[in-house]
Amino acid sequence: MAKIRKAELRDVPAIFEMINHYAAERVMLPRPLTDLYECVREFLVAEDEEGQVTGCGALKFYNVELAEIRSLCVAPGSQNHGCGRALAETLLAEAERYGLKTVFALTLAPDFFFKCGFRETARERFPMKVWRDCLRCERYFHCHEKTVYLNLPRPASLAKTQAEPAEVSA
Ligand SMILES: CC(C)(COP(=O)(O)OP(=O)(O)OC[C@H]1O[C@@H](n2cnc3c(N)ncnc32)[C@H](O)[C@@H]1OP(=O)(O)O)[C@@H](O)C(=O)NCCC(=O)NCCS
User: Fold this and answer.
1) How far apart are the CA of 59 and the centre of ligand 1, in A?
2) Are 90 and 160 contacting, i.e. CB atoms less than 8 angstroms apart?
3) Ligand 1, from 25, 44, 56, 112: best to mutate by most atoms within 8 Å of Cβ?
4) Which one, 14, 20, 114, 155, has least CB within 10 Å?
5) What are phi and psi of 41, to 5 degrees?
6) Is residue 166 part of a domain?
């Protein structure tokens, strides 16, 4: 069973390795180590029974209504066991607790997000994201990422409240 918990400073090297593994495969954007130390409080991690970090994801606030799910990934050997969904659900539960109205993500895996209840939309719907990150990105003119969003709060039937650390099968 993997456990979802808030990231700690000691998790940063593992987060860095996972994100940059997928960045090398061009399925995620790279993040420098300094950036991850600065933003570690935004992160959740999945931890397996041996204490290894097997996944991560972050919730970045933009304003009182809007946040982005960033850097969501699961280590190659741990995929397809519900870890990604558990991370997304826990980030969404956190977003709901903060009273956010919308959560979005830019992703090359939109179908995963559709399974989590997201819908596709235009990137221009989130101009703060475009100004803050996209215009600085080397892939701006060749970007294949899809923009997905979810409005909150979700109907009770969809929301799986995870105020406490979650556990998923590993
Ligand atoms: C996308 C990712 C986070 C999913 O994590 P995971 O732990 O493998 O996914 P889960 O086991 O929780 O899968 C949940 C559901 O999504 C589906 N799914 C998982 N990855 C998928 C993908 N890449 N495309 C389409 N569907 C996917 C699963 O089949 C499952 O469907 P089900 O509920 O019908 O069985 C993981 O594959 C990953 O790290 N990919 C590389 C990085 C990446 O693309 N991150 C996306 C955000 S930038």
Assistant:
1) 18
2) no
3) 112
4) 155
5) -70, -15
6) no
Q: What is the pLDDT of residue 158?
A: 62
In-domain check, residue 32:
yes
Residues with CB under 6 A from ligand 1: 22, 27-28, 72-74, 79-85, 107-109, 111-112, 115
- Tokens for 106, please give them: 């830019």
CATH number at residue 135: 3.40.630.30
**pTM of this structure:** 0.92
Instruction: Return the pLDDT at 162.
Output: 46
Q: What is the DSSP string of the chain?
A: -EEEEE--GGGHHHHHHHHHHHHHTTSS----HHHHHHHGGGEEEEE-TTS-EEEEEEEEE-SSSEEEEEEEEE-GGGTTSSHHHHHHHHHHHHHHHTT-SEEEEEES-HHHHHHTT-EEE-GGG-HHHHHHTGGG-TTGGG--PEEEEEESSPPTTT----SSPPEE--
The domain total for the chain is: 1
